[in-house]
Amino acid sequence: MYKWIGLWLSMLLLLSGCGGALHEQKTAASSSKPVAKTSEPEKTAIPTVFFHGYSGGKNSFGGMMTRLTSLVGAKKEAVITVSATGELTQEGELTKQKDDPMIQVLFEDNTSTQENQVSWITEVLASLKTQGINTVNIVGHSMGGVSVMDYLMQAQEETQPNVAKVIAIGAPFNEFLDTLTTQTQQELLRDGPDQVSPRYQAYQERVALFPKTTQVEIISGQLSADELSDGTVPLASSLAIIPLLVAQEIDVHSTIITGEDAQHSALHENRAVDRVVADFLWK
User: Fold this and answer.
1) Among 43, 54, 112, which Cα is nearest to 283's?
2) What are residue 220's DSSP bridge partners?
3) pLDDT per residue over 173-215, tens digit each?
4) How far is Cα 76 from Cα 100, in angstroms, rounded to an integer?
5) Cα pseudo-dihedral 51, 55, 60, 61, rounded to 10
6) DSSP class per residue in 105-160
7) What is the spatial order of strands in the sheet that 215-222 belongs to?
8) Whole-prediction pTM value?
9) Is 29 helix (H, G, I), strand (E, B) or coil?
């Protein structure tokens, strides 16, 4: 059973031009030990859709989904595979039952561009809408989180379901710029990064389109007090999206996972991350 370190480490009140929005940040110690099962909250029929990162596959979220079944009784109902040409193949049926359904999405071309991934995410969610799914949650790791955030900053059509909650795990929103070498984390969260990548500039231009009712959880990895990254994505890059969303009065939470198991590709196998995901989605 893992221990929270500094549960509610800090609460930062960031003000936008005409109002305030609360950003809550906490830190948790990484863990490879099974998380103790807790009492289950009331079940929901809202599906959670999982998008893997660059070079990812069925194992990227396969283990987490199995653990979430044990942890809170969530149920994996379907796997949707997207071909390199954008064709969808679905295994499993969406029951619309209140069993905290989970859907795994696999990109056959798992090293394609962000632009293609956004297009494929759009097609996947449109397919769910045709199956009677009007609201979804989304979890994305790394490039998956980057592309999901890009998708949410584009004008949404009636053919798309609403997104209630989104979790981005180890996502390089400001590419691989480590601005914590030139600014403090407080300055980053208050003012935004002092260096911006083309990806981040695109977010700046379109963040006003982000759905105002969507709740956000940002999960970042920090290997040690000296290494402010998950070994691949700088902590600064993962956190960089927060001030943009707060300025739009979006409800944003963030968790920094610490320790050697906070390594980038290990984050989706980290039991501390399991708990954060479960609590944010279903508690």
Assistant:
1) 43
2) 256
3) 999 999 999 999 999 999 999 999 999 999 999 999 999 999 9
4) 8
5) 10
6) EEESSTT--HHHHHHHHHHHHHHHHHTT--EEEEEEETHHHHHHHHHHTSPPPTTS
7) 10-16, 19-29, 252-258, 215-222, 162-169, 135-141, 48-51, 101-107, 75-82, 88-91
8) 0.90
9) strand
